[in-house]
Amino acid sequence: MSDSDHGKHHILSNKTSLTVLLLLLVFTIFTVAIAQVHFGSLNFPIAMLIASIKAILVMLFFMGLKWDNNENRAFFFGSFLFFGFFIFYCAVDLLGRRADSHVVGPILKESASTGPQTEKPWLSSPEIVAHGKSVYEKQACGTCHGDSGKGDGPAGMALGARNFTVESGWKNGRKPSQVFMTLTKGLGSMPQFDTIPAGDRWAVTHYVLAFGPDAPADSDEDLKAVGIDPSKPGGGLGSAEIEKKTIPVDFALDLYVNQ
After folding, report:
1. What are the tens digits of pLDDT across the range 215-238?
2. Which of 74, 143, 202, 247 has the smallest C-beta neighbourhood within 10 Å, fewest atoms?
3. pTM for the predicted model, two decimal places
4. Both 132 and 216 in a single domain?
5. Helix 126-138 / helix 198-209 crossing angle, nearest 10 deg
């Protein structure tokens, strides 16, 4: 486009305008007709396909993108690309959740763990590791870290999720107390899981560490840093730790909508 043409825009011929208008009317009639037929799970994709074709006709001809410069096209269609990324990551989160991910029953339950009761949950055992696996699956940790703990879940490859089978590179350290603290406080793109019982967090800690080589042992000072005094019965936690009285945001929204 020369400097003399700057600011000018293409003028549609009457023939082109009427042709596009006719196509839009045809697709509108087709939309109404197709709405009378039930296609099951294909209802939404078919409706979106027809709507997208109509939108493309409007954008190309009536909005002039067909004759616009490449920079404007890049900005315009780039917005759809970022919107696609947004939908993708939301879908990975929602579709990666288990059907039983929400607890049915009292919302604010005070409990040290939903698994095997032990006075020393910071020490690994086959029972605790087995329970850690169930919590790992229930919390959809595999969406990022993968079922085998290699960081190869659907979202993990894009976010650079931790590979639990590798011994090096753990930002907060690989001791059980350090992994427990990461679960509690979160790290980078990984959210915090302080709303699940502490016993469950310890169980997940031992489960993810079991993916790789033996983890370094915690010292008494390491355990005290996470609120545990090994010299006292039950680590000084008592028979049950009082958890934060909070619930997941999406669960709260579901409750609000249904009430």
Report:
1. 999 998 988 888 888 887 777 665
2. 74
3. 0.53
4. yes
5. 100
